[in-house]
Amino acid sequence: MKTAPPFSLPRRRFVQGLALGATGLGLGLTSAQLLARQGHTGAPTLTGDTFHLTLGGADVNITGKTRPATTINGIVPGPTLRWREGDTVTLKVTNLLPETSSIHWHGLLLPFEMDGVPGLSFDGIKPGETFTYRFPIKQNGTYWYHSHSGFQEQTGLYGSIIIDPKNPEPHAADRDQVIVLSDWSDEDPNHIFATLKKLSHYYNFNERTVFDTLRDFRHKGVIQTLKDRHMWNTMRMSDRDLADVTGYTYTYLMNGQSPNGNWTCQFNPGERLRLRFINASAMTFFDIRIPGLDMTVIAMDGQPVKPVPFHEVRLGVAETLDVIVEPKANQAYTLFAQSIDRSGFARGTLTPDPAMAAPVPEMDPPPLLGHTEMGMGAMQHGDGHAGMDHDSITMSSMDHGQMDHGQMNHNMDGTNHADAVPFAEDPDNPDLPPRNSATEHAATEYGPGVDMRAMAPGAMLADPGIGLRDRGWKVLTYADMETEDGPPDSLHPDREIVLHLTGNMSRYMWSFNGIPFADAVPLELYHNERVRITLVNDTMMTHPIHLHGLWSDLEVGNGKLLRKHTVTVKPGEKLSYLVRADTLGRWAYHCHLLYHMDAGMFREVRVVDAPTDGDHSHHGTHGEDA
Amino acid sequence: MMKTSTFLLSALTAMTVATPAWSMSEHPPRFSKVLVDQLELRDSDEGTVLGWDANAWYGGDLNKLYLSTEGERLMDPEHHDEDASTESAETRLAWSHAFAPYWDWQLGWRRDWQPDNPNRDWASLGIQGLAPYWFELDGQLFLGEDNLSELRLEAEYELMLSQRLALVPEVEASFYGKDDDDLGIGDGLVAIESGLRLRYEIRRELAPYIGVHWEKQYGDTADRTRAAGGDPEEASLVAGIHFWF
To answer: Would A9-170 and A383-618 be classified into the same CATH topology?
Structure first.
């Protein structure tokens, strides 16, 4: 691990900027001290069971402009925390920011008071105060931590967590490297949010032009082009709307380094490297690959999975992925992570020699949203359809706008699970209306806050997603993975909660079931019950949905589960996961796209003691005082 | 009368206040936007005319306070006997409520300022939104003193030529339910205004443009204008700026 990374000028400036800012706040870190503490990641690793973290402000220079950032111990990303399974850790977090702050330990199983969500777990950490977190470590793997206050996560309050297992690591590696991906903007995040409310397509510079239409006239013919466009135009949606916030304002970072900074990790050929990818961005899905090098996944969201070799993966916001790579040749490799909308990329280098770098691939052309994303019927893309002309399946039946609704639901309601269990109903909670099917749209989904409803959402776990279909190489999907050693918990839930992911793109409103957090009632789970949560994505965006404090055991089919803390749901997709409500308390449940969360795609989940009338779980209802 | 437009612009500006930071445990945020859709010089027969069309809102996702203003002022009269202060302006203050994904209804009050003529007050009821095929529509019904009524329908479209260059056609028609003799307006279709502007977005928030503006009166209104020695039809070249914040 002792190597001198080649500091390029941008990186040196970045570090100096941080150090100066930190000194200005009296943290006393000089740039020399910072450099001395820098590991590969650009962030020092702190070990032990007691930690002092200071949340503060500092000036950083990532794009050439000096801008204020929020920092942990004076740096962005914050220090890597290395814990041991079985320890009880104590974290004293001091807030030197002029506003309330917090740290949430993402993916950790802990008492809810330690979860770090202001308003649910505690009151937040007021300016000048220190909050002491203390909790036992009951798991191992790769996780991360971040602020859960305001937009501080966007401005730098995030860092990585590595928990070493109690038992010997089955995937021993010669080198162990955290790779934190994030998105940086020189804009104030409050301004970004306000801008999205005023003009939601502000950051999209890949909109359709009249010349695209003329080109389509030539290639597809006038009639076909008009047919293809008809539904989009009728729905007032853009098939080019892949990301709300784009490379227009974002610089994508790898371990805090811009693409020019070229974060670099040195290796010796023949070594076994464990790369721990963490998507710590506010809004960006990254498509990650290392041209010329196969990866093998060994864990996702910190949880070990049966190893699967692959070439490319889309990592959702807040997800983590551990892979093994074994570069044999004496050559450099580029770590390439392009954003889902292809408006920019993060980049770094794996190299045996700091003087060597590898070519950086061209970004792919931006994909077009299609039939599948419209929720007009999910198709299993991927290996079986490698030769299929994507354009033709994408748009050819777009004019079936009047398709029989009920019939489509019935035919296309693809499910991965065998057990039919009652839908949770609660007359006092509009999230839990009586349902005939999971894909049925509740009355709350009809209103100004919901601009579309998927007509035929279905199973899409094996679909790599927009822009990654028909790649010609292996793209890792949820369907490829299962938790190592088989299902970690029961496959049989007691009842099922259905939530539709909803929004209005142009008003920039986001919600569950058409109900924003401000108007919602907490969802109640009974202590120790096993509940199935089914999500139906009625929007054209991909949403990473994160349940705090409890595992989300994704039903990947054939009796297999994939244990996760954050589940990415593609447009038009319906998926289910099982949750064991084994920890009492108040938990946050939300879309991990920062501005979606703030716009209202958020719920409180309360784990409460079950009512004492006994057989509640098979009535499919709760909340009555019987 | 220049004071009117100055007042309106400062009122629009005053509506933008700093957006408070919001964490999910606090109240939903309110936002504001000021859009100066058109601020332009028109090369008309009477001379150079300053024309404007602007609006602003403040509020949450579903309910907003909405203020709009439009009007024109003769800047540089061709004939010295004409009054340089000739300006007509109207402003509308409304409560705007989202009732469908792409549609708001608006209930409010409109005031017109006319040179040498009585100002008019109107109650307004309208619908604004985005129709299929991306047409921005605005329909307003105005009910005024002396049983005056006006129906005004507007449509606008943005044709993107590149990621920053847009061709923006718009058309507006006005109908009166009854003659307004003071203003020389007859009932029925009063006038159709249309424009075609080519706009370049230096940033999304700032776009200079050039274009044409055409206005034609119809029916009784056109006859009255002709009788008064005026021309019921006018076309002019325009150059201006579109901006918002």
So the answer is: yes
**pTM of the full structure:** 0.88
Which of A198, A207, A211 has its CB closest to that of B31?
Answer: A198
Would you kindly state where each structural domain of chain A is located, as residue ranges? 9-170, 383-618
Residues for chain B: how many in total?
245
Contact (CB, 8 A) for A537 and A578: no
Please check whether residue B22 lies inside any domain of the structure: no
Is B61 in contact with A507 (Cβ distance < 8 A)?
yes
The secondary structure of A344-409 as a DSSP string is: -EEEEEEESSTT---PPPPPPPPP---TTTTTS-----SGGGTTS-HHHHHHTTTT-TT--HHHHH
Contacts of A151 in chain B (CB under 8 A): 21
From the number of C-beta atoms within 10 Å of its C-beta (0-12, 13-18, 19+), residue B163 rates as middle
For residue A191, give the H/E element and its range.
Answer: helix A189-198
Q: What CATH code is carried by the domain that includes residue B84?
A: 2.40.160.40
Which CATH architecture group holds A383-618? Sandwich (2.60)
Which single residue is written with the structure tokens 């949606």?
A237
Give domain status of residue B139, yes or no. Answer: yes
Q: How far is B29 from chain A (nearest CA, A)?
A: 9
ipTM of the shown complex:
0.90
Span B62-89, pLDDT tens digits: 999 999 999 999 887 666 555 555 678 9
Residue B21 covered by a domain: no
Q: For residue A4, count CB atoms less than 10 angstroms from its CB and return exposed for 0-12, middle for 13-18, buried for 19 or more.
A: exposed
Q: What's the gap between Cα B98 and its chain centre?
A: 21
Question: What is the band of A388 on the pLDDT scale with cuts at 50, 70, 90?
Answer: very low
Residue B102, domain extent: 2-15+29-244
Other CB atoms within 10 A of residue B76 CB: 11
Tokens representing A69? Answer: 């950032």
Task: Give chain B's end-to-end CA distance (angstroms, integer).
Answer: 26
Give the angle A170-A176-A261 at the CA atoms, nearest 5°: 155
Structural domain includes residue B24: no
Sheet holding A104-106, edge to edge: A45-47, A80-84, A158-164, A141-146, A104-106
Q: How far apart are CA B57 and CA A506, in angstroms?
A: 16
The pLDDT tens digits of the residues spanning A417-446 come to 557 899 999 999 999 999 999 999 999 999
- The domain tally of chain B equals 1
CATH architecture of A9-170: Sandwich (2.60)
**8 Å CB contact of A235 and B62:** no
Is B137 within 8 Å of chain A by CB?
A: no
Distance in Å, alpha carbon of B63 to nearest chain A alpha carbon: 11
